[in-house]
Amino acid sequence: xxxxxxxxxxxxxxxxxxxxxxxxxxxxxxxxxxxxxxxxxxxxxxxxxxxxxxxxxxxxxxxxxxxxxxxxxxxxxxxxxxxxxxxxxxxxxxxxxxxxxxxxxxxxxxxxxxxxxxxxxxxxxxxxxxxxxxxxxxxxxxxxxxxxxxxxxxxxxxxxxxxxxxxxxxxxxxxxxxxxxxxxxxxxxxxxxxx
Length: 195
Hints:
- The chain is mainly α and 195 residues long.
- 46% of the residues lie in helices and 8% in strands.
- It contains seven helices and four strands.
- Strands 1-2 form a two-stranded antiparallel sheet. Strands 3-4 form a two-stranded antiparallel ribbon.
- The longest helix has 22 residues, at 173-194.
- The model is unreliable at 1-7 (pLDDT under 50).
């Protein structure tokens, strides 16, 4: 995918179990936040804003800010204890200070209450929400103990394993799990043809 093209929402992943880990997943297998439109789709898909929230005011500085946060999450999540963790942690803590977008309940078309934001969400408020999610993940011993690295070949995706028995091996059964099953089948077939 060329940088600057719109990423279709189906290409974005929201299966890691945490918003901050979903942001990390936007770098695999290539840059998924290649345009402001792709970032808008990610913000909505990640649940940072209710569906239908206008984000027309987002500009390229938003891309830079979200990518910067993502770069600071890498050593905190994937390489705890690395030398870059100190500066990364300081920056994530700093970003987490921003107030989140203010929600409100309003009557929907059918009269039931729906969630809307008090006004257009600002970049810093949305970045702050993702940074706070990272702080929550990093400081919750149970959640932190459930963080896993995908066992798929060359897959850097990190996810929270909430499966029964904590035996989840792949970021996605449909993506990496399917690739592993296909590779295993091919190995068995090749072994049988050589025999």
